[in-house]
Each structure stands twice: as C-alpha cells, then as structure tokens.
## 1
Amino acid sequence: MASAQSTEQPTTMSSPARQLLKLLSTSLTTFEKVCAEKHFEIPDLNAPFHPASEAFRSDPVAGEAANVLGAAALQLAAIFVPPQISLYHMVGGIYSSSGLSRVKRD
C-alpha cells in the first residue's frame, strides 16, 4: 500500500505564532542593542531588584521594545496555553510570583 503524499503547497503567509516570534526576535535585538549602547542593565529575575535594572525605561526606543516583548510573549501564551490555565496565571499564578521574586528582602 503506497503512502499518500501531500500535494499542498506551502503557504506564503506565516502563522500568527511565527509573526509573534519574529516580532519577539526583532524587539529583543533592538532592546539589547540600545541597552548595550547606553550601558543599561537588563533586568534579571535571578537577581534582587535594583532601580538600575529599570533605567532602560527612560529611553523611548528601549521602553517600546520592552513593551512589545511583553505583549508578544503574552500573545504567544494566549495561543498555546489552555484558557483555564491562562486565567489562573493572570488571577493568582505565576506572573505575580515572578514579579515578587525581584523584590529585595531586607
């Protein structure tokens, strides 16, 4: 029995997920470039919070790139994470705890 081969042609339009991935990559490149040029510290969730890690927000290009990165990441999560899990994360889950991990304990 011969296997059926697909005769479908590849689509020229990319999927929304691929478009978001490209947007993430482009925005991250812009963000890293501006941070390197202006000697901004890039936030690290594994380090205690320090105001210097937020200095990039004073630059409109870096700030916009960071906003796009965050929005695109949330859009990807909305595509791939089950809706009930997304709701749980937004209401009382991981986003709150990851933000709190940056707060320095006295």
## 2
Amino acid sequence: MGTVAHRPRAWLEWAETEEGELVVRIGGELDLDSVPGVDPAVDGLIARHNGRHVTVDLGELSFFDSSGVTVLIRIANGSGSMRIRHANPAVRRVIEVLGLASWLGLESD
C-alpha cells in the first residue's frame, strides 16, 4: 500500500523568469488556519525581493478569506508594484468587494 504525502492546505512559491519577472504562485485554501504556514515564505519573499515588481498568480488558489487578503496586502506593501492574474471568480469577488482590485493590480482574465 502506498502512502499519501501531506500537502499543506495553502502554499506559496516564487521564481524569477528568464525575462527577470518575479512570479509568485499561491495555491490551496488561504484562510485563518493556513496563513501561518505561508507567512515564512512571505517573509522570505519580502526580504529578498523588496521593492521589485511582482506578478501574483492565483490560478491554483481555490479559497481565501480576510486572512488571505492580508497576505496579498503584505506582498503589495513589500513590492514596488504588483499585479494579480488568474484569480477564480470567488477569489476575484472578495478582492473587488473589499475595494482592493485596482490597488492590488487585479487583472481581468
């Protein structure tokens, strides 16, 4: 019988493209319970790339609440500029209802 690897409820990773673009990917369910698990990655991102333009890809983020919004705000505050792409309708709705779409650079997909 095989084993099932534990996958965190939420995850965050980043990489620099060949063109020098910093892309942050966030996936899973980003809420009050899971945010502490991604906080170290956010801290590392801000420490290493403070002031740079960041593209945040939310294509694999299935759910987030106000705690998840704070992660996006922290990334925005630590970057020179930011844009968000591939947000699903539920995630997009939270960002828009809070009036943060323009400030966070939410793209229409």
## 3
Amino acid sequence: MENLLIEHGLKATKGRMEVLRALQTATVPQSAEDLIEHIDSKVVSASSVYRILSELEHAGVVNKTVRQNAIATYDLTHNHQHFILCSHCGKMIPTDHCPIESFEKEVARKTGFKVTGHMVELVGICPNCQQALADQSRSHLCT
C-alpha cells in the first residue's frame, strides 16, 4: 500500500494507510460512513476520512461512484468490478466480469476519445427481498 501511495505522488501517512487497508479488506465498495465505522477514530478522525478519500480520488488511487441512492462509495482503482444492488435492502453483490470493455474500445475508435473509465450499476431485488415481498403479498390476500 505504501508503494501505491508513493507511485501516485502521495506520502504514506497513517491516515491514508488506514483508509487503504480498510478498502483493501472490503468485499464491496465502501461509503465514507462505512469506513468511519471500521477505522479507529484515535488513528483517523471522521473529517480526515472524507479529506483522505478526496485526496486518494484526485490522485487516481480510488474510484468514487455515486450510486443511484445518491451515496458515494469508494474502491481501489485496480479493483475493477461491477455490482448488482438490491433496491429494497441495499445488499450489494459483485458480478463476475465486465461486459463494457469491448464497447469502450469501439466507442474510442469511433469517436477518437480516450476512454478513461465507466460506471455500471445494476439494480434489482435480491432473492431474500423477493421472498419477503411474496410472503407479504400472500398475507394481504389472506386477510
């Protein structure tokens, strides 16, 4: 992690290292609030987490994605993944691959743009919520 910061022109401070460790161990992108919950406030204050995330984003170390629920989440730049988000409970599950890469190349070729990234967010209803909704619907029919 220290080398990653240095490669991007940043000093390896305790705060940055803590935020990166938390992002590295997470299985899904994290909001600032998620990180604040998991990082010792004696090491990094809540306001510092927001500042550090901004610095890391501007340096290209993390990706910031504003989800459809308007919450910004962060993940390490080299962790290119897409997710499906349950619109009922907020559960987020990674998908297996990125179907956009070939499309990016085609768009770049046709437009002359250098594509630097993309955002894809699938939204649906997870199996647990589908079951809960079906149960709820059945209970209303019985009354």
## 4
Amino acid sequence: MSTWIKRSAEADWDYQTDLTNDTARRISEQVSIDYANFREKVWKLIQTVDYKSFKSDELKRQLEKLNVIGVAALPEDKLTDYTKIYTEMTEIYSTAKICPYQNQSAI
C-alpha cells in the first residue's frame, strides 16, 4: 500500500509543479486510475475477511478504513472521466489569477 501512495504522490507532485507538462499530467492521471483499481482489489479481498471479530483494535481500524472504496467503485469509463475532470479542475484552480487587493480591476 505504501508503494502505491508513494507512486501516486510522486506523480501528482511532478504534475503539480509543472502544470504545462502534458506527459506529467497523463502519468498522474494513469497512476490515479491504477491506484483506484488496486484499491478495488484490496476492497474485494477485505470483503472475504471477517475483520470485525479481530482482537486487535488497530488492525480492525485499518481494515475499516480500507473498506471505504471511494472513487474506485466507479466503472472504468466513469473513473477515467472523473480523473480527467479532477485534473482539469486542479489545473484551473492552480492557475487562477487573483486581483491585487489595492487594484481590484487589474485583471
């Protein structure tokens, strides 16, 4: 799991620090989709385990968190659309221009 989180963070960082880099954007989107597919596999595996009967509260808590699937529950085409829209919204938000406080009509 930590390998996926590291891979996702690195791809996201590469894209976020250079929003004009289309290659970094595509890689970031693909890593997000791959991670969601991995999360779905983990979720399916957790469904086969009765983790609520475990004695370790820490392990139960971790498995409960992993049991929340999130966007990984989306079908592949919807997941791809979601990822692209999320990336586009991030780019728009990150490149927004703000007027200086002293000159509200600057833009």
